[in-house]
Amino acid sequence: MTTSQVTSPMDRLGSPLRVRQHERAVEEARRAYAALPQDRPVRLAKRTSNLFRVRSAADSAGLDLSALRGVVEVYPARDGGPATARVGGLTTYEQLVHELLPLGFVPLVVPQLRTITIGGAVTGLGIEASSFRNGLPHESVVELRVLTGDGRVVTATPHGEHAELFRTFPNSYGSLGYVLDLVIELEPARPYVALRHERFDSVAAVTDAIGEVMRSHVWDGDRVDFVDGVVFGPTECYLSLGRWTDRLEGQARPSDYTGQQVFYRSIQQRRTDVLTAHDYLWRWDTDWFWCSRAFGAQNPLVRRLWPRHLLRSDVYWKIVALENRYRLMARLDRLRGLADHERVVQDVEIPLGRTAEFLDWFLREVPIEPVWLCPIQLRPDGPRAPTEATEATDEPPWPLYPMRRDERYVNVGFWSTVPVEPGARDGDVNRRIEAEVTRLGGHKSLYSDAYYDEATFAALYGGATYDPVKRRYDPDRRFPSLYEKAVQAR
C-alpha cells in the first residue's frame, strides 16, 4: 500500500495540526540547509549517536533536524496490505514504540538500542530478532523523503524517478542526503513475548538449529516470531526463541530486567520466560547487551546505587564518548604499566553455511566473549522488491550492502577491547576480522572502525552503483563520501 491509495480523511489516524507542523518542519529543514555555508562540509547535528567511529575535528556545518520527530500519521491496513505510518526521520525507536505500541503496532524490525533513530537505521542498517522473517529496517520502507546534497527535497520510492536513490540509500550513512520522513510498514503487536532459551554444546549445533528455525519458523512445535542467540564459549551456546502471546503462560507476572536482574544472565538460568512487549523490545538496552559490566553496572552493590532510569545504553555511550575524548582510563592503564587496548566493536553478517567456521576462528583468535547471534534473511516480497533492472540481472537489491535474497545470514556481534600485543599496532585485530569476513563471503556493518583501502571498499560496498548516484544528488560533495565517513571518519 502507498499513501496515494489512502484517499479518505477517515483513513488517517493523525491530527491535521500534527501534519501541518510536520510539513512546516520539512520546509524549515530545506531552508536551514540552503542557509549553511557552501564551502564547508555538512553534518547532522544530533545530541546522541550510536556510531563508534571517532569523527575527525573537521570544520563542518551542523544541520539540526530534531523537529522531524514522532509519528505523523497512521494508515490502517486495507486491501490485504499492512498498516503503515509516516514518521519523522529523527524519531528514535524508543519514541516509535511509545507512540505505536498503545495502538497495537510496532515497526517490523525494532533495533536493540532505544536512541537509534529510524532514519539512522535506514541509512546505516539495523537488525533484531525479527530479522529472520522481516529482514532489515529499510525493507519495510514504502517511501523516503530525502533532503539531498543539492538542496532538493525528493520523494524516493522503489519505482519512479528516484528509484536509484531508494536502492542506494541503505548503508549510505548520510552521504547522499538526510531522511526527513518515511512511510513504513507496521506489524500487529500483542501484550507479551514468551521466550524459551535452548542450550547447545557447540557452534555447529547452534547454527544447525538456526537453519531449522529460519526454514520453518517453528521449534519443537512452537511458532517462532523472534530468534537471537548468545555464544558464551565454544561449548555453551543459546538460542532465545520468542513468540507473541496474549497471556503470561504460567507466570504470576512478567519478568523485569530493568532493575537488579540482568537479562543476558537469565538466558543461562531460565528455560522459559515471559516479558511485556515493551520490555522484550528493550531487553538489551538496559545493559547495552552485556557491555554495562565495563562500568561496574552489573556489580550488585553498584547496581543498587545506580539510578534505575540511568540503566540505559545512551548513558553508557556518553561515558565511552568522554573516554574517547579525554582518554583518562587509557592514561591510567599506561601509568600502571598495562598494555594499550584496541577497540573491537563490530557487527558482521556471515552466510549461515559459514557461520560455524567464522565462530570457531573468532573464539580461537579473538579474546572476546560472549558474542551475539542474530539470523537475517532479506524479504522476498513487498515494497522493497527489486527493480526491473535487478530482476533481470544478478545484481543485489541493496547494492551498498550486497546481501543476496536467496542467502541466509547470521549477524555476529562482538563489542569489547583486546590488548595490543608486543610488536602489533592498534587496528591489527580489526584488520584480521575484516579479512576473515571477506574470505567467508560476509559483510561488515560500518558504524564502527573500518580499515579497508579505497579500492577494496568500493568493491565490497557497491562503489560502481554509488558513484553515479552521489554525482546526481550531491554534485558539489557537500556531504562527505561513504568512504570518507566510514574509513577516514570525516
What order do the helices and strands come in, and which of them pair?
Blueprint: H1 16-35, E1 42-44, E2 61-63, E3 71-75, E4 84-88, H2 93-100, E5 105-107, H3 118-124, H4 131-134, E6 141-148, E7 153-156, H5 163-168, E8 177-188, E9 192-200, H6 203-216, E10 218-219, E11 222-223, E12 226-233, E13 236-245, H7 263-269, E14 272-276, H8 277-281, H9 300-305, H10 313-326, H11 328-335, E15 341-351, H12 352-365, E16 371-376, H13 388-391, E17 409-419, H14 428-439, E18 443-444, H15 454-460, H16 463-473, H17 482-486
Helix pairs in contact: 6-12
- Computed CA radius of gyration, to the nearest angstrom: 22 Å
* CATH-derived topology of the domain at 18-188: Uridine Diphospho-n-acetylenolpyruvylglucosamine Reductase, domain 3
Strand content bin = 15-25%
Q: Show unreliable segments.
A: 1-11
**Helix content estimate:** 25-40%
Q: What is the average of the pLDDT values?
A: 92
> How large is the count of helical segments?
17
Note the overall shape. Answer: globular
Main beta-sheet annotation: 8 strands, antiparallel
Task: Give the N-terminus to C-terminus distance in angstroms.
Answer: 38 Å
CATH class of the domain at 18-188: Alpha Beta
